[in-house]
Design a protein that fits this description.
One of its GO terms (biological process) is complement activation. Belongs to the protease inhibitor I39 (alpha-2-macroglobulin) family. The protein is mainly β. It folds into two domains: 57 residues, no CATH class; 95 residues, Immunoglobulin-like, CATH 2.60.40.1930. 0% of the residues lie in helices and 40% in strands. The protein has a five-stranded mixed β-sheet with strand order 4-12-11-7-8, with no helix packed on it. Strands 3-6-9 form a three-stranded antiparallel β-sheet, with no helix packed on it. The N and C termini lie far apart (76 Å).
Length: 188
């Protein structure tokens, strides 16, 4: 798994940056938290510097956004997913999207590729006979199931509250020259 990168510094005190990339398939899979040993050696000098480096298997960040937090059955859920790299720049990578109903059953699974770091193409309708409760949209990068992101939303029947407002005058009629009239407002 070792990779050698050489850089030449011609002036004393000059600092250079060396970028190394670790291929995911070369990381040991049996280790929960992989570490790599980074070794810096100067040609012509016996001494070398070693440092243990923690390797993050997290491929980037995923943010899921829905158009509202609560839906009625038969409504369409519109959502978008933002995929960002470690520098918080748009990341055009492939990721899985799953939608789970309130009973925990997966009702949809798809593999998509973000365009300019955004995926917005797949609204879905909540069936009329759906189970009420908390539904989930889960997304993760391909091969990175341990770092899945979840967005929850509620599905419940919304019934407009019923109320009644009544205005009752003290008198059933008012002469045209009356300057003031009294009434009572009742709300139920």
């Amino acid at each position: 798994m070792s990779q050698k990168n050489s850089t030449v510094c011609t002036e004393e005190g000059q600092i250079q940056t060396v970028e190394l990339e670790v291929e995911r398939d070369k990381l040991p899979t049996f280790v929960d938290i992989p570490n790599l040993m980074l070794v810096a050696k100067i040609d012509g000098v016996k001494d070398r510097k070693m440092v243990r480096v923690l390797v993050s298997q997290h491929r980037g960040y995923i943010f899921i956004q829905t158009d509202q937090p609560i839906y009625n059955p038969t409504q369409q859920v519109r959502y978008r997913i933002f995929a960002l790299n470690h520098a918080m720049r748009p990341h055009d990578d492939t990721f899985h999207i799953s939608i789970f109903n309130a009973a925990g059953n997966r009702i949809m699974k798809t593999l998509v590729k973000a365009q300019d770091g955004i995926f917005t193409d797949a609204p879905f309708n909540i069936p009329d006979v759906s189970e009420m409760g908390v539904w989930r949209i889960v997304a993760h990068y391909q091969g990175d199931e341990k770092n899945a992101v979840t967005r929850e939303f509620q599905v419940k029947k919304f019934v407009l509250p019923s109320f009644e407002v009544t205005v009752k005058p003290e008198q059933s009629y008012f002469p045209l020259n009356t300057e003031k009239f009294t009434f009572t407002i009742l709300a139920k």
